[in-house]
Amino acid sequence: MKVLRLWLILFALAMLVTSCEHREPEIIQSVLQTDRELRNVNGVIEYHHKPLTGFVYDVSAKGDTLLSARYSVGQEDGWARKWYPNHQLAEERFYAHGKRENTHRAWWPNGKLRFQYNYANDLMQGSEEEWFESGAPYRKLVYKAGYEDGKQTVWNFDGALFANYVAKDGRNYGLTGVMNCINYLKSDSNQNESLMKGAVNEK
Q1: Contact at 8 Å (CB) between 16 and 43?
Q2: Distance CA 152, CA 167 (A)
Q3: Which pLDDT belongs to residue 28?
Q4: Does the structure show a pLDDT above 60 at 71?
Q5: Which single residue of 22, 79, 139, 152 has CA 20 to 30 Å from 8?
Q6: Parallel, antiparallel, or unpaired: how do β-strands 38-41 and 201-202 relate?
């Protein structure tokens, strides 16, 4: 009985070693953002024609880090951060298998908070806040599963109220402001989002 048990243990260990030997090793790479072999192929970041697992980075002329973004099998996965040349943090965003998650933040060059967004499963969830470089509030919106939901407020640069309304069931009630300006504010968020993805070559 003891011999049989010992044989089973040895067999299990042999199978474990064999499976480990045939496992493809995960290749971790660090690639400069301007590398010509780094490409965006239909939303997948590839390096030498293979989905990248590793980091995309950028540095200043002095060698200081300006960008660090982690990728797993070609998708953003983990923290992505940007810095100003003076080493001050400019942006930080978090991704899980290519989807936006957690709290995304950015700061103005003077160190004051520029925006703070919250995501769940790649959709805006909870508060979305932005500030002017002076520190005065720019807008404060509330989202639920990617849609405006609740009280939404937008201010002009001089602090005057620009929009103040409640979003409910796809409709807005109250002072919504000029529609063209509201659209401009939304496009500004999209522009901020693209800063973190990096200027890699499109195929």
Answers
A1: no
A2: 7
A3: 75
A4: yes
A5: 22
A6: parallel
Q: Domain residues of the chain, as ranges?
A: 25-86, 88-196
Please name the helix (run of DSSP H) or strand (run of DSSP E) that holds residue 105, with its range, or none.
strand 99-107
Q: What gap in Å lies between CA 70 and CA 31, rounded to an integer?
A: 10
The tens digit of pLDDT for each residue in 158-181 reads: 999 999 999 998 888 888 875 444
Three-class SS state of 5: helix
Closest by Cα among 128, 116, 55, 60 to 88: 60
Contact between 82 and 91 under an 8 Å Cβ cutoff? The reply is yes
Buried b (16+ CB within 10 A) or exposed e, 174-203: eebbeeeebeebeeeeeebeeebbbebeee
Residues 74-90 have pLDDT tens digits of 999 999 999 999 999 99
Tell me how far apart the alpha carbons of residues 56 and 45 are, in angstroms, rounded to a whole number.
10
Instruction: Give the model confidence (pLDDT) of 181-201 as tens digits.
Output: 443 344 344 444 544 354 455
- Structure-block tokens of residue 129: 């806040």
State which amino acid sits at residue 21.
E
Decide which of 38 and 9 is more confident.
Answer: 38
CB atoms within 10 A of CB 82: 20
If residue 193 lies in a helix (H) or strand (E), which one and from where to where?
helix 179-197
Round to whole Å and give the CA distance between 21 and 54.
Answer: 22
